Structures are given as C-alpha cells and as structure tokens.
Amino acid sequence: MNEKQKRFVDEYIIHANVYRAAINAGYSENYARTNASKLLEKGSIKDYKDKRLKEMKNERTADAQEVMEYLTAVMRGEQSDEELILVPNGDFVSEVERHERRSDTAQRTKAAELLGKRYAMWTDKQITDTTERITIVNDLDE
User: Fold this and answer.
1) What gap in Å lies between CA 142 and CA 128, rounded to an integer?
2) pTM of the model as a whole
C-alpha cells in the first residue's frame, strides 16, 4: 500500500466522503469521480481503514449501543440536566443553587425522532438485502 492510499484512507475517516478524500489525497478529479469508491473495496485499503478505526476507538468514544441507550433514556425522561439558579440574598449578595430537572419535551421528542430514524419508522420505503441476481426486463411495446 502506498502513501497516497494511506492519505486517502485518513481523509476518508475524517470526511466520510470518498470523492473529497481522493482529491485531498492527491488523486485527479477524474479518477476521484470514477474510481474513488472502488479504492475502498481493495483488501489492503479496507484492512488499513479497519486498523486505523480500531486505533482511534477508545473508552472515550461512544459506540452505537451507548448512543441508543442514551437516546432512549432521554426520550423516557430518565436523563436529567443540572440547572444553576442565581438566588438573591439581600443587597448585592446572591447565591447559586443547583437544581436537577428532567429533560424537557423538545429534547425528548428529538431523541424519539433520532431513534425513529435509526429504525426507519418514518418511511414507507422497503429496505431489502439480497444477494440474488436482479434482472430487469424491458417488455414495453416499441
């Protein structure tokens, strides 16, 4: 694997856009437009990308399970926020009090929307995975 390919993978990890990653790595626009997605399919590049992603993952990085659990907790109102309130105690004297409050309706609704998008609840499209060969037959009268 050459340095340009390594730069391509690093740029792809940053931008998640194959065309932009290829351009930033030094490939021509024409090559990027037609072949950039094919680069990701090469075994050595795929292995390098997986290796780089594994290096970047650590305990401070949330995984999909943690994100889903957090959104569910917010949606259910189980997550609370800390709120600081300034309380006056006489002339030119005040005190800060900490209060916990449940997530508001807007935050809970947004969490529900994000969860709904994850499970494709708001679409009429059918998502199918198949490994079968698809044949399109043009049977229109000419």
Assistant:
1) 32
2) 0.46
Domain range for residue 40?
3-56
126 band by pLDDT with thresholds 50, 70 and 90: low
Give the C-alpha separation, 44 to 77, whole Å. Answer: 46
CATH of the domain at 22: 1.10.10.1400
Q: Which two tokens stand for residue 98?
A: 């900490």
Read off φ and ψ for residue 96, nearest 5 degrees. -100, 125
**Which long-range contacts does 96-102 make (Cβ < 8 Å, 24+ apart)?**
102/77
Task: Name the H helices within 16-104.
Answer: 18-25, 29-39, 43-56, 64-75
64-93 tens-digit pLDDT: 888 899 999 989 988 888 888 888 888 888
Residue 142 lies inside a defined structural domain of this protein: no
